Amino acid sequence: MTWARDDYTVTDDRDRLDLEAVHAYLTRSYWSTGVPLEVVRRAAAESVTFGLYLEGEQVGYARVVTDRATFAYLCDVYVLEEHRGRGLGRWLVECVMDHPGLQGLRRWLLTTQDAHRFYERLGFDRTTFPERFMTIDRPGLYLDEPSARASNRLAVTGATSRSTQTHTSR
Ligand SMILES: CC(C)(COP(=O)(O)OP(=O)(O)OC[C@H]1O[C@@H](n2cnc3c(N)ncnc32)[C@H](O)[C@@H]1OP(=O)(O)O)[C@@H](O)C(=O)NCCC(=O)NCCS
């Protein structure tokens, strides 16, 4: 599916994705600093992806992790700095939510550090029941720093021992 506006295009066509360009942004983003290209490729392959293009150049991206029936997690949304402030971010998310494969879902979810107003105007609310949500977060996972590696090892070790216990108690 493709949407057009002025000289810009949004499409879910995977073949048009420039994943090296997407990686170049995501690896410097606040939420996935240092993410490897291979992880960006794997995530895109298993998601519904949306590229924002100006004459073939990838200038934005959005990714939806979804079962296409009940739930969607919107993530990795960005517009390159030089294209911001022209309504493109809003249009990109509108295209995502207009996608025929993402209709009738019971819940959309996203996390954001500072773009709450941006998403509120697209229909998202701050969650009414934050106490119901639980997460495992590994914020330093992609950072190449000894302290980040150590804390990630701890997190993974903890998860492994829990799943081992679950497995052996069956
Ligand atoms: C958030 C982002 C995608 C917005 O893209 P954009 O093309 O600049 O946004 P738009 O021009 O469509 O803005 C639409 C409206 O939202 C407002 N807005 C844009 N970014 C905002 C933000 N971070 N917080 C609050 N409002 C914001 C704009 O002022 C505009 O308001 P207006 O209609 O009154 O003029 C872009 O700033 C970006 O890539 N940021 C860095 C990555 C990021 O934070 N992504 C979200 C992570 S979940």
Characterise this structure.
With 170 residues, the protein is of the alpha+beta class. It folds into 2 domains: 2-127, Gcn5-related N-acetyltransferase (GNAT) (Aminopeptidase); 136-170. The chain contains 5 helices and 6 strands. A 6-stranded mixed beta sheet has the order 1-2-3-4-5-6, with helices on both faces. A hairpin with a 2-residue loop joins β1 (2-5) and β2. The model is unreliable at 150-170 (pLDDT under 50).
Apparent shape:
globular
- Name the assembly state: single chain
CATH homologous superfamily placement of the largest domain: Gcn5-related N-acetyltransferase (GNAT)
Mean pLDDT, to the nearest integer, reads: 88
Give the terminus-to-terminus CA distance. Answer: 46 Å
Helix count? 5
Proportion of helical residues? 25-40%
**What structural class should be given to the helix and strand makeup?**
alpha+beta
Strand content of the residues, in percent? 15-25%
Bound molecules: coenzyme A
Provide the CATH top-level class of the largest domain: Alpha Beta
The count of DSSP E runs of length 2 or more, i.e. the number of strands, is 6
Q: Which series of helices and strands comes N to C? A: EEHHEEEHEHH
Q: What about the largest sheet? A: 6 strands, mixed
CATH topology of the largest domain: Aminopeptidase
Give the strand line-up of the largest sheet: 1-2-3-4-5-6
What is the number of independent domains?
2
Question: Which architecture of the largest domain does the CATH hierarchy give at level 2?
Answer: 3-Layer(aba) Sandwich
